[in-house]
Write a structure and sequence with these properties.
20% of the residues lie in helices and 39% in strands. It is globular, with a radius of gyration of 24 Å. By secondary structure, it is α+β, with helices and mostly antiparallel strands. Helix 3 packs parallel to helix 4. It has a six-stranded antiparallel β-sheet with strand order 3-2-1-4-5-6. It has a five-stranded mixed barrel with strand order 7-14-15-17-19. Strands 11-12 form a two-stranded antiparallel ribbon.
Length: 433
């Protein structure tokens, strides 16, 4: 597989030509190689190997921003022409320039040189996943493994030329026992860190344990949200509220709360760009990343900005631009969001523990109100699982909940671009039978 840096001459050629036709220009290029195996019961139902190449060009002239992308190196001139054309019809905005190069003082570790993207390695992973799933009664319904290796670069007419290499390995398993299902996954940068044993055992445990699930009476109870459940509310409600774009548009509950203590005094939330799957030393605008403290001691400290939003509102970029892919324009996001609070044994006193939530996408992203169905929930007490719960509706307000937490668990888990502990919330209403 080619490396993104192998296209340095092409990138310089594009920038040279773009520099003659626009005030500034930027090139983002990504190259990746992946292999995946999909499980259908215990058989590999589909195997796929893919190589991708993508180029995105952004041009700026008098505040008019144009963009285009292509998946063919031979089409770069057409791509540049399209970017320039889109810029000519775009509304102008306040623009103070693409970033200039800086020297980085920290390294990141998201590339495993020993990881090989081949069917043999993938087969070994899926074999170990299936073998580990023999630990209970549940039968495999689906799942799979994937391996990936990629590189990207960002360069602009101000001298920026940064490259990043990354690898990934993932495994997932869905199992079923009667009408009871279980699902678990793992996604890591280094092959040595993937734990197919844990994935299989947890999925099987969920399916087997919840076979005997019963109803819950309507009540008010402390609720422990596992990282998988908490991430749904954090991603759907809190992250949008911390975006400078929604703040200045008046669509954020936190818009007028900078410097205000509005959460439990132990709550800390920050974006750490140097760890996790999303670790990077530069963001999607080419701005150097740094730790960004959103919440400290329960008080709102900062909001997130990419270049466009920062220039529009007279702020400074926080290095928070991300891309959904080479063709995606930079948008405000996180690299690795971390949430912490005072540590406690959150499963000791009786509470309802939920591993998942159904319907979190319907939450009100402005007010923080939500109503969701509990998934893979159970009573816990003295650190042990009690009666499994078939279903129940949980309603609340995430911002109010964060102001009244009972503690966070000792262990943390990386879910996508978030690293979260279990968090126990006080006295929430649950609607049961």
């Amino acid at each position: 597989m080619h490396n993104a840096a192998d296209y340095a001459d092409l990138v310089e050629t594009i920038l040279a030509k773009a520099g003659h036709e626009a005030d500034e220009a930027e090139v983002y290029l990504s190259v990746s190689d992946s292999v995946s195996l999909e499980l259908r019961r215990r058989q590999v139902g589909e195997a796929e190997k893919a190589v991708s190449w993508a180029l995105a060009i952004r041009t700026i002239t008098d505040g008019h921003i144009g963009a285009s992308m292509t998946m063919s190196p031979a089409r770069w001139e057409d791509c540049l022409a399209a970017a320039l054309a889109s810029g000519r019809i775009a509304d102008p905005q306040v623009w103070d320039g693409l970033p200039e190069p800086v020297t980085f003082s920290r390294d990141i570790d998201v590339c495993d040189p020993s990881l090989t993207v081949d069917a043999g390695t993938a087969t070994d992973l899926i074999t170990s996943l299936c073998k580990a799933a023999e630990c209970g009664k549940a039968e495999i319904a689906g799942g799979g493994v994937s391996l990936g290796k990629g590189s990207s670069l960002i360069a602009n007419t101000n001298g920026v030329f940064y490259t990043r290499e990354a690898t990934s390995a993932s495994a997932s398993l869905e199992v079923i026992n009667g009408t009871s299902t279980g699902y678990e996954f793992d996604h890591v940068s280094h092959l040595r860190d993937i734990d197919t044993q844990r994935v299989a055992e947890e999925a099987v445990f969920q399916a087997d344990y919840w076979v005997g699930a019963g109803d819950i009476d309507s009540c008010t109870a402390d609720v422990v949200l596992a990282p998988t459940a908490l991430s749904q509310l954090i991603g759907g409600i809190l992250l949008p509220a911390l975006s400078g774009r929604t703040v200045h548009a008046g669509r954020s509950f936190l818009a007028d709360k900078k410097g205000v203590a509005c959460m439990d005094p132990s709550v800390v939330m920050y974006d750490d760009p140097y760890v996790g799957i999303g670790a990077t030393r530069w963001d999607a605008d080419g701005v150097a990343t740094r730790r960004l403290d959103y919440i400290r001691e329960g008080t709102v400290q900062s909001f997130a900005y990419d270049l466009r939003t920062a220039y529009r509102y007279g702020e400074a970029s926080t290095g928070s631009a991300v891309r959904g892919g080479a063709g995606g324009a930079p948008v405000i996001g996180v690299h690795c969001l971390k949430l912490d609070a005072r540590r406690d044994a959150v499963r000791e006193e009786k509470a309802v523990l939920a591993h998942g939530l159904i319907g979190a996408h319907t939450a009100n992203t402005i007010t923080g109100d939500f109503s969701v169905e509990l998934s893979n929930a159970a009573w816990v007490e003295d650190g042990e699982y009690g009666a499994p719960i078939r279903s129940g509706m949980l309603s609340g307000n995430l911002f109010a909940m964060l102001a009244d937490i009972a503690g966070a668990g000792e262990e943390q888990r990386e879910i996508g671009r978030m690293t979260l502990p279990e968090v126990r919330f006080n006295s929430l209403p649950i609607i049961g039978k």
